[in-house]
Design brief:
Blueprint: H1 5-38, H2 43-73, H3 85-117, H4 126-149
Helix pairs in contact: 1-2, 1-4, 2-3, 3-4
């Protein structure tokens, strides 16, 4: 069934934003452990990765906001509510996912870069950064599953 009008446009925007914001964020998160093993030779790419993580993690707010807009639009006259368990869970998972990238991955990368600049070894940060990226990525995967399955919806 098609999604006409404003709902279809907002749904398209939501999906496109998710693909082009959350996709690269997840990919950068997955690449960080390899960069850390590269040491000083990977420093230019690591600096870029740190910026990308910060920018894309904040930009996930656009995905969340378009999702909120979809709740208010409803499809085919149906009205969704934030009281729907799958929607509430998705919002909590978004907070955890974005928070893990902003609270673990981005600072971990910044500290690793500072350690390299000081002549140190950033590999001790691999576990924390990898755990943050894995947690965030798992949250995105669960959100996608909830959006598709809509349990109880």
């Amino acid at each position: 069934m098609p999604h006409p009008g404003a709902f279809g446009l907002l749904l398209t925007l939501h999906v496109v934003l998710a693909v082009f914001i959350i996709g690269p964020l997840t990919l950068v998160g997955a690449a960080v452990p390899l960069l850390l093993r590269g040491g000083a030779g990977a420093l230019p790419v690591m600096r870029l990765a740190a910026r990308l993580v910060r920018v894309f993690a904040v930009a996930t707010l656009l995905v969340a906001l378009t999702g909120v807009g979809l709740v208010h639009q409803g499809s085919f006259g149906s009205v969704r509510s934030f009281g729907d368990d799958w929607l509430a869970a998705s919002m909590v998972l978004w907070v955890v996912g974005a928070g893990s990238f902003l609270g673990l991955v981005a600072p971990g990368l910044s500290h690793a870069i500072a350690e390299i600049d000081a002549g140190g070894d950033p590999r001790r940060r691999i576990t924390t950064i990898t755990a943050g990226a894995a947690l965030g990525s798992a949250c995105w995967l669960i959100v996608v599953a909830l959006m598709v399955i809509k349990p109880g919806g």
